[in-house]
Amino acid sequence: METALSIALGIGLSAAAGFRVFVPLLALSIAGYADVLHLAPGFAWIGTIPAIVAFGTATVLEIAAYYIPWVDNALDTIAAPAAVVAGTVISASVITDLPPLIRWTFALIGGGGIAGLLQGATAFLRLKSTALTAGMGNPVLATAELGGSVGTVILSLLLPVVAAALMLLLGAGAFFMARRILFGRRVPARRPD
After folding, report:
1. pLDDT bracket for residue 97 (50, 70, 90)
2. What ranges do the domains of the chain cover?
3. HEC profile for the chain?
4. 6-20 in b/e burial notation, b at 16+ Cβ within 10 A?
5. How does pLDDT run across 107-129, given as a tens digit for each residue?
6. pLDDT of residue 133
7. What pLDDT, on the 0 to 100 scale, is given for residue 191?
8. Residues 6 or more apart from 3 whose CB is under 8 A from it?
């Protein structure tokens, strides 16, 4: 049961990295330092004061950068791979009772995958917002993404299974939206009467 909860926690926190890369890392760092979460072997460094300071600084800079028009779109090109890496590290750091190969497999596919998928969806929305509003609507989107990240972190820490289920549903929705955009809606051929 503890393994399932740690996997759910990893998926939930990783999904939050899809909205904002450093918010869940900061929360994980604080929770590890406060002994609220037990970190996997090799990840004790996350729960240290230097890590809290580093993640806190990065969080403030990331949040501020997303409120600057056009910088936010440029930041999305960096945030996409960073979200995958952060999601993978977050998942691997909270999954404690599995052998390393299985833990890293779950972390890469589940954590990195959901973070990358959600980050891609938010980048697409920002691109559309920029095109439709010349960037003036992007701060509203940035606020929603920040709220989504903070809310997902809180929900993941309190109810990891619920958070993981919701984020997997959101990820599936993002996947099908991307598939529809990339491949278009296929209309079945009409048979002559």
Report:
1. confident
2. 2-179
3. CHHHHHHHHHHHHHHHHHHCCHHHHHHHHHHHHCCCCCCCCCCHHHHCHHHHHHHHHHHHHHHHHCCCCCHHHHHHHHHHHHHHHHHHHHHHHHCCCCCHHHHHHHHHHHHHHHHHHHHHHHHHHHHHHHHHHCCCCHHHHHHHHHHHHHHHHHHHHHCHHHHHHHHHHHHHHHHHHHHHHHHCCCCCCCCCC
4. bbbbbbbbbbbbbbb
5. 999 999 999 989 988 888 888 88
6. 87
7. 67
8. 95, 97, 98
Q: And the tokens for 70?
A: 């056009």
Q: Is 189 helix (H, G, I), strand (E, B) or coil?
A: coil
Average pLDDT over residues 9-22: 94
The most distant pair of C-alpha atoms in the chain lies apart, rounded to whole Å, by: 73
Asked whether residue 57 carries a pLDDT value surpassing 90, the answer given is: yes
State the amino acid at position 154 in one-letter form: I
Per this entry, what is the length of the chain?
A: 193
